[in-house]
Amino acid sequence: MHKGKFDLEERFVDFGAAVVFFCQDLPNDMPGQYYGNQLLRSDGSAALNFGEMQGAQTNRDFKNKASISLKELKESRLNLKILAKVSYGKKDKRLVLLNEAEQLIRIMATIIKNKNYFSF
Hints:
With 120 residues, the protein is mainly α. It has a single domain (8-118), classed as de novo design (two linked rop proteins) (Up-down Bundle), CATH 1.20.1440.60. Helices cover 81% and strands 0% of the residues. The protein has 4 helices and no strands. The protein has helices at 8-24, 30-54, 59-85, 91-118. It is elongated and about 45 Å long.
């Protein structure tokens, strides 16, 4: 999913767009709608809180927004795992999304850890 220059904001945008396309392919039944809508919300929240984190005025606000983004990424990951368990969505797309979610989770956890370490 990620190629070339490292730009975390662009990765969140790409991840969000890929989630939209993935959700369009989910079955139009109750579980597909429920988990698809929830995945869109949690992924969107992760990206938007990352954006807010970039404009944070204080270390506390920065860590709060980063933590919310991390929490929402973990929710997205769990949602994708549930969808995998019931074989919903295209497997190849789901695996790419799961991989990117894992990478973004690790990156955000490292950002939070380093911010805690370097804060006075």
